[in-house]
Design goal:
The protein has helices spanning about 15-35, 55-70, 85-105. The chain is mainly α.
Length: about 100
């Protein structure tokens, strides 16, 4: 019986590069949204105020951009169901989940 195989140390998760990638995606997303939408509703009584700013489908685009950066597939389960209300919420949540997944590898 031998010793257990030594785990090869992986490179650390590129958190700053991933954060920059997510913020660049959001900047392009916000610019596109400004072209196709009117001014946001003045009151919170609008149906549009119930929808998240960034849908979970859009958040998957962010995950795919980070996949190119890290070189492996990231499960879609890192994305929060229902979407994100702000860019900061998206970045904070996705980075923590993707970093935790990277550390499990």
């Amino acid at each position: 019986m031998g010793l257990p195989a030594r785990k090869i140390a992986a490179e650390p998760f590129p958190e700053s590069a991933a954060k920059a990638e997510l913020q660049a995606w959001y900047a392009a997303f916000a610019a596109d949204m400004a072209l196709i939408t009117d001014a946001p509703p003045a009151a919170d009584t609008s149906v549009l105020s119930l929808a998240p700013l960034i849908s979970s489908q859009h958040a998957l685009e962010c995950v795919m951009r980070v996949e190119k950066l890290v070189g492996y597939k990231i499960p879609h389960s890192v994305v929060k169901r229902g979407g994100y209300a702000t860019c900061d919420e998206l970045v904070t949540h996705l980075l923590s989940r993707m970093k935790a997944y990277h550390e499990k590898l």
